[in-house]
Amino acid sequence: MDKPFNNKAWFLVLPVFILVAISAIIPLMTVVNYSVQDTFGNNQFFWAGTEWFVEVLHSQRFWDAFLKNIAFSATILVIEIPLGIVIALSMPKRGIWVPFCLVLMSLPLLIPWNVVGTIWQVFGRADIGLLGYFLDWLGISYNYATNAVDAWITIIIMDVWHWTSLVVLLSYAGLVSIPEAYYQAARIDGASKWKVFRYIQLPKMNRVLLIAVLLRFMDSFMVYTEPFVLTGGGPGNSTTFLSIDLVKMAIGQFDLGPAAAMSLVYFLVVLLVSWVFFTVMTNLDADAPEKGVQD
């Protein structure tokens, strides 16, 4: 006898849909509305069509900030993903030190973003900061407030310090999920540590690493608070990422139309990359059972 189908369960998720509509969809529609209109004040709006999108996509200011975001995200991924894997491989898999290491790795993630920026802002100052004072004592010229290279290095190190722990924890979760039988077979075959990593650990971590890359790309590409607190987008415009430039345009200059168009382009880029990663992860999940059957 077939069990009767009941749609009443959808009422349980109705509050979630309402919350998402209020917190996401309605603001997004407001941004879309501003992106296709112009105003001369007095709450009077005029249809502008795609004018602001064309202006943004032909703006050198937008592409400069966009390339800074790409360079920053690429640098972060190149540093944090390998570093997180190495640290995860070095952590104990069992024993009393496991919770200590996990708590230690989690501490940077618990610090608010604005506090991280303030910490490194003070830490890098030559007059009161330990890093600035130490570099000055060594005779190394360092000033993140006036030198663009120093500002970039400081922001990158700050992000690595703050977010590598996320990659470590994800990689560690992938490592501890590997059955011991794989390691026993490798020891019987006399496999080296490199071959164990290459043929056992890395393939078993590919999904969590994709999640780590996706999360770190999204967060680094949308970075705002830490560099804004540390440098304010300076010196000059050397650390003015898209998020900082967007805030300057919307709040500082009150150009709501171009700012709305830029925010939508910004959103679509992040959405496109997220879709690519989701597609890759879905294909990996679909290929895994077939590969297991063939093996």
Provide an overview of this structure.
With 295 residues, the protein is mainly α. The chain has a single domain (60-294), classed as MetI-like (MetI-like fold). Helices cover 74% and strands 2% of the residues. It has helices at residues 10-35, 51-57, 60-90, 97-106, 113-123, 130-137, 148-176, 180-189, 193-221, 225-230, 242-252, 256-294; strands at residues 37-39, 45-47. It has a two-stranded antiparallel ribbon. The longest helix is centred in the last third of the chain and has 39 residues, at 256-294. The mean pLDDT is 86.
Q: Quick gist of this model?
A:
The chain contains twelve helices and two strands.
Percent range of helical residues: over 70%
Principal-axis shape? globular
Query: What is the H-and-E element order?
Result: HEEHHHHHHHHHHH
CATH level-two architecture: Orthogonal Bundle
> What Rg do the Cα atoms give?
24 Å
Uncertain segments are none
Strand content: under 5%
Average predicted confidence as pLDDT: 86
Number of strands: 2
